[in-house]
Amino acid sequence: MPASTLPADTVQHVDTPMQHFVPSYSDGFPAAAAGDSALGTIDTLAVMEIPPAGKAQPFARSPLHDTPSMALLLAGLLAVALSYHAGYKYIGNLMHYMISTRRRGNLFEDHTLHETTMLTALMANTCIVQGFFIYYAVQLFCPSLAPLLKGSTFLHIALFTALAAGFTIAQWLVFKVLGYTFTDKIGARLWVEGFKATQSLVGLLLLPVLVLLLLYPTHGKLLLSIGAVLYLVARLIFIVKGFRIFYSNLPSIVYFLLYLCAVEIVPLAIMAGLTVWLCGTLSL
Which long-range contacts (CB under 8 A, 24 or more apart) does 228-231 make? Predict the structure, then answer.
């Protein structure tokens, strides 16, 4: 198109020479702007403040984040739940089995098959819960043994559960032998029923404490102490029932004190020694 046909302003724009933008700070910003003498150079400015920190702590394994360990705990709870519908009467009669020393025949003396299944599930749940408590007790109250538990969490808990189960079976056998040795058949049966009932109760009492222990391990020592008190209370109920069964005269108190030392205290010391031995064996 001829230039004469273009508008006047367009022709004038085309014929104007191109202008270039010249930056004011082609060599970078000055160290100090006008009227600002406190800026200084960038080398004098703090880039990051490093917060103070303590010594790094090793990661503590928790059964809560271990799938096989939680599956073991849920298996015990599932066994109790499945047995409850048919064997709920055993839980209803639990207090009777724990404290009653009535020797006359009654409806509570014979267990049905469903009640036996319920009892077995409760005892298994108690052994599993005790296995978890032993694991936490070793970590918190025996710092020298805590590094030995850095291996498989499930393996340790499973073995501690087996240890608790073996301890329970051994106690049941000892109480049965002592019952038939120092009293009659009815007294022995009442004593063994008291042991099984208190063991079943221990698992139910310790379960809420274990849940809190899994969720709040920082309060482990307090929760373990609460668990120990609950175990002691259940054990005292059983001891009182045994005293009521076996007490006949004043000299029998001496035999009962010997029983407390031989059957209640020494086995706990043996179990503690076996726990230490298991920790050392599994770390090899």
Answer: 230/202, 230/205, 230/206, 231/202, 231/206
